[in-house]
Specification:
The complex is a heterodimer of chains A (191) and B (251). Chain A is 45% helix and 11% strand. Chain A is mostly helical and 191 residues long. Mean pLDDT of chain A is 85; it is low at 174-191. Chain B has 251 residues and is mostly helical. Chain B has two domains: 13-112, no CATH class; 136-245, Structural maintenance of chromosome 1. Chain E (Arc Repressor Mutant, subunit A), CATH 1.10.10. Helices cover 49% and strands 6% of the residues of chain B. Chain B has a four-stranded antiparallel beta sheet. The chains are: A mainly alpha (191), B mainly alpha (251). At the A-B interface, strand 2, helix 4 and helix 5 of A face helix 1 and helix 4 of B.
Chain lengths: 191, 251
C-alpha cells in the first residue's frame, strides 16, 4: 500500500477509535503494511497536526495513539460540552500519586506514608477505575496490592508509567546540613 | 480565647506539620520542636473548639511530638546513644515528613499535567451508553412518581391476609435480568404486572435501582412523561454473574 493511502486510512482509524490505538491493533487492521510503515505514517501525521496547529493532535497515550484536542482550545470545547470536569480532591490526588509511584502497594503502606486512613479514597479511586487490585501481598491477611490502570494513563496524558514526572529525590527536599556540615550547597559529581 | 488563626483543611497530621514548618520558614530536617509542638497542639485545640472531628491520627502525632520534646529536655548523657532505644523518634518523623512531602509534590505535578476532560479532550467513546436518538434519561423523581402510580394500582381492600412473604432482592434482580437478557425492552409498569403486594413492589423497585447502579440496565423514556422503559446495558453479563454468585444478603 502506498504511504499516501496509508496515512488517511490510519487517520480515519484514529478518529473512530474509542481509545488509544496500539501499533499492533493498527497493524492488524491495515493488512499489508509493516509496523515501521505505520509508525512512520503516525509520526508524519503527528508532525503535520502539530506544525499546522490543528484542532486535534496525535498523542501517545497508554501504549497507543489517540487524537486529542490541544490545551489551547480547552475553553471552547468545555463551552460546547457543558458540565464541569470532575475535580479531584487533594486526598485523592495524593493517594493516587503514592499508588502511581509505589505500585504495587497495599492500603496499609499508603496509610503509613499519608499518616491517615485511606479506605474512602481508595474506594473512590477504584470506582473511578483509576486503580485496581493487581495481586495479593504474601503477608498475614493477604491484603490487596493496588496499581494504576490504563485509564489513569489516559487521564494524566501519559504514554506509560515510565513517563511519570520524576519523583524528587529525598536529598533535594532536605537541607545540606542534614548530610553532614561539610557538604557544600552545590554538590558536584566528581567528589 | 480569641484566635484569628486561619484554619485550613488538613489532610492529616503530617500535612498539618508540613504547613506549620512552612509557615515558620524552617527546614524539615531542622524543626524547632518546642515551637512547632506548641503550634500543633494549639491547632488541635482550635479544631476541637470548632467541633471538627479530630481524628485519632492527630492525637498520636501530638504524643510523638511531646515525646521528642521531652527527650530534648533530658540532660545530655553519654555520647553513645542507648542501643535499645531503637530509632530516634525525631529522625523517624523527619523521614516521614520528607517522604510525605515527596508525594505531595508528585501529586501537585500530576495535577499540572494536561488532564483529560479538563485540558484536553477526545471524541467520546461510541460504546459509552449514549441513549439512542430522541431518548432521554429518567430522573429519580420521575421514577418515584411512576412507583407511586404502581402502588396506587394495587387492589385496595381485599380481605386482609397476613402471609409471611419471602421475596429477596436477589430473586428480583435475577428475574429482571432474565427478562432483559432476551434483549427486549420492558416498560416500567410491566415489571410490576405480576406483583401482588406493596412489599414486593418495593423490593422489585430496589432491585431495579441496584441493577442500574451495577450498570446492568438502563432506564429511559422517549419523551417527557412518556412510558418509562428499561433495557439491558453493558454490564449485564457481569451483573448476572455477580448476582448468581452472591450469597443471599439477608433472609
Amino acid at each position: 500500500m502506498e504511504r499516501a493511502d496509508l496515512k488517511p486510512i490510519v487517520e480515519s482509524l484514529l478518529f473512530v477509535a474509542d481509545g488509544p490505538l496500539t501499533l499492533q491493533r493498527l497493524g492488524e487492521v491495515v493488512e499489508g503494511s509493516s509496523r515501521d510503515e505505520i509508525r512512520t505514517v503516525l509520526q508524519e501525521l503527528q508532525a503535520e497536526l502539530d506544525r499546522e496547529r490543528r484542532g486535534v493532535r496525535l498523542v501517545e497515550i497508554a501504549g497507543g495513539y489517540q487524537l486529542r484536542t490541544p490545551k489551547v482550545n480547552a475553553d471552547w470545547v468545555k463551552k460546547l460540552l457543558g458540565g464541569r470536569p470532575p475535580r479531584m480532591s487533594r486526598a485523592t490526588l495524593e493517594t493516587l500519586a503514592i499508588i502511581a509511584y509505589r505500585q504495587p502497594i497495599t492500603r496499609a503502606e499508603i496509610e503509613a506514608i499519608r499518616g491517615v486512613d485511606v479506605d474512602g479514597v481508595v474506594g473512590t479511586l477504584l470506582e473511578r477505575n483509576l486503580i485496581r487490585a493487581v495481586a495479593r501481598k504474601d503477608v498475614p491477611g493477604r491484603p490487596f496490592l493496588y496499581g494504576t490502570t490504563p485509564e489513569f494513563l489516559q487521564l494524566f496524558n501519559l504514554k506509560d508509567l515510565t513517563h511519570l514526572p520524576t519523583l524528587k529525590e529525598m536529598e533535594e527536599l532536605t537541607l545540606p546540613e542534614d548530610q553532614g556540615d561539610s557538604i557544600p550547597l552545590e554538590r558536584t559529581e566528581e567528589s | 480565647m480569641s484566635t484569628n488563626v486561619q484554619l485550613e483543611i488538613f489532610e492529616g497530621p503530617l500535612d498539618l506539620l508540613l504547613h506549620l514548618i512552612k509557615k515558620n520558614e524552617v527546614s524539615i530536617s531542622d524543626i524547632p520542636i518546642a515551637a512547632i509542638t506548641a503550634q500543633y497542639l494549639a491547632t488541635l485545640e482550635l479544631m476541637q473548639n470548632l467541633n471538627l472531628d479530630v481524628a485519632g491520627e492527630f492525637l498520636v502525632m501530638a504524643a510523638t511530638l511531646i515525646h521528642i520534646k521531652s527527650r530534648m529536655l533530658l540532660p545530655a548523657g553519654d555520647d553513645e546513644p542507648d542501643e535499645d532505644e531503637g530509632i530516634d523518634p525525631q529522625e523517624e518523623l523527619v523521614r516521614r515528613l520528607l517522604e510525605y512531602q515527596r508525594y505531595k509534590d508528585a501529586a501537585a505535578e500530576l495535577e499540572q499535567r494536561e488532564l483529560l476532560t479538563r485540558d484536553v479532550f477526545t471524541r467520546p467513546a461510541a460504546t459509552e451508553q449514549a441513549p439512542a436518538q430522541g431518548f432521554r434519561e429518567v430522573s429519580l423523581f420521575e421514577l418515584l412518581t411512576a412507583l407511586r402510580r404502581v402502588i396506587e394500582r394495587l387492589p385496595k381492600d381485599d380481605a386482609h391476609e397476613v402471609v409471611l412473604e419471602k421475596i429477596t432482592m436477589r430473586e428480583k434482580m435475577t428475574l429482571i435480568l432474565d427478562i432483559l437478557r432476551a434483549g427486549e425492552r420492558v416498560i416500567f409498569v410491566a415489571l410490576f404486572s405480576e406483583v401482588k403486594s406493596r412489599m414486593e413492589i418495593i423490593v422489585t423497585f430496589l432491585a431495579m435501582l441496584e441493577l442500574v447502579k451495577m450498570r446492568a440496565i438502563r432506564i429511559f423514556q422517549e419523551a417527557l412523561n412518556g412510558p418509562i422503559q428499561i433495557e439491558a446495558a453493558v454490564g449485564i453479563d457481569q451483573a448476572t454473574e455477580r448476582v448468581a454468585m452472591e450469597v443471599e444478603p439477608q433472609g
